[in-house]
Design goal:
The structure is a single chain. The chain is an alpha+beta fold. The protein folds into 4 domains: about 280 residues, 3-Layer(aba) Sandwich (Kinesin); about 70 residues, no CATH class; about 170 residues, no CATH class; about 100 residues, no CATH class. Helices cover about 60% and strands about 10% of the residues. Strands 1, 2, 3, 6, 7, 8, 9 and 10 form an 8-stranded mixed β-sheet that branches. Helix 1 crosses helix 3 and helix 3 packs antiparallel against helix 4. The structure holds adenosine-5'-triphosphate (ATP). The site of adenosine-5'-triphosphate (ATP) has 15 residues, from helix 2 and helix 5.
């Protein structure tokens, strides 16, 4: 049994667990916890754990399990819900922050962190993917949150045996910590310095908690110092199984960081936990138990008092009690008492009757007052002035009602429009193979392996993702032609396209394999059916033969039937093997689809960033500057190119970003400046000031695309 399997096994048994990856930036924490972005075989601990958990849940039919998922990101000591649907409409900073609440028993509750039920592995993986996409979309080139934020993916499991009142709860936190490098070494300033300080501080507090936990006689563990330690309070030390994965960089220059990571790992290894089961009683079953107890007590009481108390008092008893109450009230003696014995039903009825008498008296009193008023009204007719006042008031109220009705109508129309729009968006998504990715992608339509409802969910989930991306990146559903063209070039020259193409090929292969397997499975199924039919017919023949020849049925096995049976068994084995393979293929295909979706989101995001940057630089440079140098926005200086690469680069993809396409066909900087000079000399360029930007992004994109196309033709001419 692998470590993960053993670990998740105890979570299934009801123990809390945490697996966290600790190490410097780029050492492989995300790769370990979530997985690599390229191959199915690179999937990380989260998808593998989910796969194992759901496999076990399916096997164990003796218990009822419920699984929920939450995904929390901690950035600069603020918590964000990565599964908050509002991610679609807001930036990270606008989302409600996840806050920590502590109950009197010092249990931690997280406000604004949503829990999502996942009934299958696929649903859980969808949530992981959604969270990862939200995380990626929320980050900007200047804020690579994945490096500087902590992420906690939590699987909440509850289990109970049918009929039992005891429910077991367990949480498994899978934590991808921010990079652990020291501020001094990173040598950064501004926003990055603030982030680095927060990271160092939170990792420092995590270290303090770990040290405190490893010291035997420490009574106080400083969990409250940071959000991370507060969230992991019940899953670090104490009642929990904890595993730390230390990730190291093998480069020599990182030796200090590697030693510091190993030291930390050593301290973590000293903690000894005594995990206990998290059990609690189900309230519904508790009620049943208490009702039973009440009945037992009633029986006991009846036995002691010798009185069998039925549910209700008789009519005569009730009348008697009411009489008693009335005479008690009428009795002028202040010492008088209402004696009804120790029967609670009788006491309650007396009180009830008392209340009734009191209320009747009150109402009677009121009605006397109102009849007095009526009499007065009749005597004095309304004065003209008062009548006018009341009429005005009535008119005023009428107006108010009209205004409110109009407002209501408007709101209703708005809601209807929104509904209409969302249904249009859905339709657009159906055609949205119109996105920058050409139609007929092998990875485009989801495979028809899963059942129909799941497919519908998948499609709507993908639609949601697609529109989410569009809204987040500001990308329109319909790109202008120029923009589409630019995107095609951008995509073609992007380093990730190799991986995307590879995955596309693998996906195609897997898809064909799955299709072939599906056909073979169907064949095997029909063959089994045919064989069974043959067996039945053989039986009938044998019986008919016995009847016609009047021979008693032979106890000897029929060799033909035996052969047919062994063929059925063989086909069943084949069917099972193929089915298992198909299931594995389905998981692999889905994972590959996730990876490709992720790569697409990344590509579109980077394209948008690059496009926005180009548009800004064009705005800055035009019109006055461009009047002097029309080519300036396109023929960039090496410094400008370097700046862009810097801006877009991230820890993992430096090499990829370095070869991001420049807005003009790729030219080396020297060549560019030479060509630029040549163009300036030779082309009677129209000043850019004659093509002003409009401020409307769609129109400006078209203008930009037109200029680019023109410039590209001019360049081609010059190079010939
Ligand atoms: N075991 C591995 N095999 C292959 N590639 C790896 C492995 N570990 C990490 N990588 C690659 O190294 C790069 C950095 O890894 P990763 O993003 O997981 O680092 P990290 O520690 O999570 O960094 P950060 O702190 O910035 O989030 C990625 O491109 C990843 O694919």
């Amino acid at each position: 049994m692998s470590h993960i399997e053993a670990f998740t096994f105890s979570v299934l048994a009801g123990y809390n667990g945490t697996i966290f990856a600790y190490g410097q930036t780029g050492s492989g924490k995300t790769f370990t916890i979530t997985g690599g972005a390229e191959r199915y075989s690179d999937r990380g601990i989260i998808p593998r754990t989910l796969s194992y958990i759901f496999e076990q849940l399916q096997k164990d039919s003796g218990k009822i399990y419920t699984t929920h998922i939450s995904y929390l990101e901690i950035y600069n000591e603020c918590g964000y819900d990565l599964l908050d649907p509002r991610h679609e409409a807001s930036t990270l900073e606008d989302l409600p922050k996840v806050t920590i609440l502590e109950d009197p028993d010092q249990n931690i509750h997280l406000k604004n962190l949503s829990l999502h039920q996942a009934t299958t592995e696929e649903e859980a993986l969808n949530l992981l993917f959604l969270g990862d996409t939200n995380r990626m979309i929320a980050e900007t080139p200047m804020n690579q949150a994945s490096t500087r934020s902590h992420c906690i993916f939590t699987i909440h499991l509850s289990s109970k045996e049918p009929g039992s009142a005891t429910v077991r709860h367990a949480k498994l936190h899978l934590v991808d910590l921010a990079g652990s490098e020291r501020v001094a070494k990173t040598g950064v300033g501004g926003q990055l310095l603030t982030e680095a300080k927060y990271i160092n501080l939170s990792l420092h507090y995590l270290e303090q908690v770990i040290i405190a936990l490893s010291e035997k006689h420490r009574s106080h563990i400083p969990y409250r110092n940071s959000m991370m330690t507060s969230v992991l309070r019940d899953s670090l030390g104490g009642n929990c199984m904890t595993t730390m994965i230390a990730t190291l960089s093998l480069e020599k220059r990182n030796i200090d960081e590697s030693i510091s990571t190993c030291r930390f790992a050593q301290r973590v290894a000293l903690i000894k936990n005594e995990a206990v089961l998290n059990e609690e009683v189900d309230p519904r079953l508790m009620i049943i138990r208490l009702q039973k107890e009440i009945q037992e007590l009633k029986d006991e009481l009846a036995l002691v008092t010798g009185e069998q108390r039925t549910e209700a008092l008789t009519e005569a008893e009730l009348l008697q009690l009411e009489k008693l109450t009335t005479s008690f009230l009428e009795d002028q003696d202040p010492e008088s008492r209402l004696e009804v014995g120790t029967d609670m039903r009788k006491i309650h009825h007396c009180f009830h009757h008392l209340k009734k008498l009191l209320n009747d008296k009150k109402i009677h009193g009121k009605s006397t007052v109102s009849s007095e008023i009526k009499e007065q009204d009749c005597q004095e007719p309304l004065k003209e002035e008062e009548y006018k006042k009341l009429r005005d008031l009535l008119q005023q109220r009428d107006n108010e009602i009209n205004i409110l009705v109009n407002m209501l109508k408007k709101e209703k129309k708005k809601a209807q429009d929104a509904l209409h729009l969302s249904s249009m968006n859905r339709n657009e998504f159906r055609h949205s193979q119109s996105s920058p990715f050409p139609a007929g992608n092998p990875e485009g339509p989801r495979m028809s392996l899963s059942s129909a409802p799941t497919q519908a969910q998948d499609v709507s989930a993908l639609g949601c993702r697609s529109s989410l991306l569009h809204r987040k990146t500001g990308m329109r559903e319909e790109m202008s032609l120029g923009r589409q063209e630019a995107f095609e070039i951008f995509k073609r020259d992007h380093a990730d396209i190799v991986t995307i193409e590879d995955n596309k090929q693998t996906l195609k292969q897997r898809f064909y394999e799955a299709k072939a397997l599906g056909e073979s499975i169907n064949e095997a199924r029909s063959k089994i059916g045919r064989l069974k039919e043959e067996i039945t017919q053989r039986h009938m023949q044998q019986v008919a033969l016995g009847i016609s020849e009047n021979i008693a049925a032979s106890s000897k096995p029929d060799p033909v039937e035996e052969k047919l049976r062994s063929q059925v068994e063989e086909e069943k084995r084949r069917y099972k093997a193929m089915f298992t393979r198909l299931k594995a293929l389905k998981v692999e295909i889905e994972h590959l689809q996730f990876l490709m979706e992720k790569a697409k989101v990344k590509l579109q995001k980077e394209f948008e960033a690059w496009w926005a940057e180009e548009a800004t630089s064009l705005q800055v440079n035009s019109p006055a500057v461009n009047a002097l140098n029309p080519m300036k926005p396109f023929l960039q200086t090496p410094e400008a190119q370097h700046e862009r690469a810097q801006c877009l680069s991230d820890k993992s993809d430096v090499s990829a970003r370095k070869i991001l396409p420049s807005p003009c066909p790729v030219l080396h900087s020297q060549q560019q400046s030479r060509t630029g000079a040549f163009l300036e000399d030779s082309i009677p360029a129209r000043p850019m000031s004659s093509i002003p930007l409009t401020g409307d992004s769609q129109t400006d994109s078209d203008i930009l695309a037109f200029i680019k196309a023109r410039q590209s033709i001019l360049e081609k001419k010059c190079l010939q």
